Amino acid sequence: MTLVGRPVPHESARGHVTGEALYTDDLLGRLPGLLHAWPVLAPHAHARLVRLDVSAATNEPGVLTVLTGDDVRGEGDTGPTRHDEPLFPAEVMFHRQPVAWALADTLEGARRGAARVVAEYEELPAILTIQDAIAGESFLTPPLRLARGDLGVMTTSALRFEGELSIGGQEHFYLETQSALAWIDETGGVVVQSSTQHPSETQEIVARVLGLARHQVTVECLRMGGAFGGKETQANTWAAIAALGAAKTGRPVRVRLTRALDMSLTGKRHPYLARYVAGFSATGELEAVRLWLWSDGGWSLDLSEPIMWRSLFHCDNAYHLPAVEAIGRVCRTHKTSQTAFRGFGGPQAMVVIEEVMTQAAHRLGLPPHVVRERNFYRESDTTQYGQTVEGADRLRTIWSTLGETSAFERRRAQVDAFNRAHLHVKRGLAITPAKFGISFTAAFYNQGSALVLVYRDGSVQVNHGGTEMGQGLFTKIRQIAADSLGVPAEWIRLMPTRTDKVPNTSATAASAGTDLNGAAVDDACRQIAGRLSAVAAGHLDCDPSAVRFAGGVVSARGRSIPFADLCESAYRERVPLFAQGFYRTPDIHFDPAAGRGRPFHYFAYGAAVSEVEVDGFTGAYRFLRTDILQDVGESISPVIDRGQVEGGFVQGVGWLTLEELLWDDRGRLATGGASTYKLPSWTEVPEVFHVDFLPRAAQPGVISGSKAVGEPPLMLAISVREALRDAVKSFSTGSNSPPVTFDSPATPERIFFAIQEVRLRNRPTTRTPTAPATGLARLNAADRAGFVAALGWVFEGSPWVAERVWSQRPFTSLEALHTSMVSEVARASREEQLQLLCAHPDLGERARAMSDASLDEQAGAGLGGLSPEGHRGLQELNAEYRRKFGFPFLYAVKGSTPDQILEALVRRLPRSGDEEFAEALAQVSRIARFRLEEGV
Hey, how many other C-beta atoms are within 10 angstroms of the C-beta on 175? Predict the structure, then answer.
């Protein structure tokens, strides 16, 4: 039986549970004479270091030395791309930036030594927000841009709107904080144990700082207790300090950040500021969109530029953007250098386009899920950077399948019924998609290497360039190797990742760990199996092509030989039992100058339905249920993949709802610990949580037909944000609920204030049944507020019409007043006209609040007395009309019968969009005239 595809346990599960699994800081006992390092921390966000005196520190008992810039033998900079991260800065660029490091026999001694270092500073002005950086033109990159199509179409769009959205960052909060150990080996080389996602880059940085060639530095990563991108580049600094200390003292050195130090000194997910302008058709198709994205990159470049590029690549999410311009820029602020985090800039941009889709739906009076589906990519569509969206049909399959399995339509009705029955508690339901590109966007990183060693007894050691951070990469690699060689999994030993076994590796990132390293391991195993097949053919008297490997036995034509015996024979025949494997992702390229290319090998698709319940008094909420359908191709390890989907989703929920990073006006991180930084816990796991994989979904050209699963599920948490918005919208008391928006994260405080704004903005301006008729004389004498209060109800939910004609007083007749109001509607923008149409309720609506005027008019026409069957028929026609035209069927019902209204609805359905838009405005004018005659 093949091992690939079976739900096997994590290869280190027992060690994780028992504590037998070792991490970097668990190796201290193996290093006698170990020194501990502690930083000297600057108290300013931006300052010039004018004096540094370490003499008092070195007199402290147990303190051996203090590391400063004078100790650097090579280049004192750890910047991974641009060399802009001095290890011992003369200019402090963020609060608590280390300027020196004390080394002592004990950690407490190192703390005391660091406290005795005298450092004097000249404080400088600090830039602490994206807005301040924009105003001060403080940037780390030039503008990055992707564009296509004619944005001029927005000038004729039925709906045009703009907006702004702030998106907060996120703390990695891995269980194992940053840590490194370094010592000098017997040859004078440097050995580093590091909790790093990128051992080869850590090797490069250590060699740079020490002034050594890379072959003099060996970096090993045993395993990590979580990383999420936070150890892709930011493990390098701590490894460099440990190595520098070891080189200076000749003794092993340990650097391990406490939780408080880790949160103060390391980068986060980038906060973003987004602005957008979008144009949609009346039926909800996006026609053009312009996006501006600014990220808070902190004090140095780090990976901020490729992160912004991925934001531009993913600003479409699952939607075809026929005309788009997306411009991104990284701001320089005096904060920690923000860095990679699961999703790598994609999630922020995807939140923005989902905001645009929902805003359009609300303004058009359409269900958000309908607008989303109408804009999905179709097969052969291309992205804004020119890549064909292969497999786009999977997205529609996932969408429709999940709609059925989650009972979306039935639950939509249940949520609406619940909300009608509860005044101060509302529920929200939303479905959102995700399309995520898989590959490093820098083409040269898309390579994997492996070294596989088979011993004479048939046992196997596997070395590869990927690192294990709990995500299950080693489990999948073990399954791949066992299947490729046809041996049981227990015969396979995965070795720690080391730069002296597999050189020049890529980071374990971009969700590509299995794709790259799994394919490289499979390549090495197949080379060995090919050699063994030739040996076996001699023993089994067959052609090598007939040889099969399975279950630790090699067989052909009814004869067999144990795998171990075959390995012994191969050794005796001087056949090599080791091989180097290699894989490079094909057809990956992108030209930043042209903004065109194929940066991704394939796309991973998914969708989620989430339901929430919100308390209107506090803004607090419950996560009731989530249903996920994720495309993982043919899963290599279903238990591992399920864990990644569940964990990624909950981490995304934390980012979008709870985890709020705050800095004070001096640049100090105010949320620097678990007591002030709210993390997701069991209460953020939905009470009902269903995760399924798209069946029969093998991905061609990828190891075992699988798909990456590390990052894509995080974006499915956007469904929770949209469900919260849906619940907030339900607190509206009027027939025309305004668009709902709030910044991210959607904390209970933000939800509370969003509810308050919806209630305030939606106070009805309708005439009450007991209000007296108002004569023209009183209207002409009224101030603006009185005039609007008296006539705001005439055009449903659109008091702006009355406000604009107030200055045209006095009116000599009712006809003159009506003419002026109709003229203002005619002069209004297409968007305002559409909003006016959408403010009206559906005819015969029973579940939606109506103004008193609409209630009276529909009741007078007999629509309130329709039979259940007649009401159902009318609602079906209403729904068909809305789907086609994007606004409710409008008809001046006064003096009409239900049959006449239905006949008009059927007659008008076949019309064109422009023809019906004009007819709807004409009907609104008739309704307004009837209302004026009654009220004035």
Answer: 9
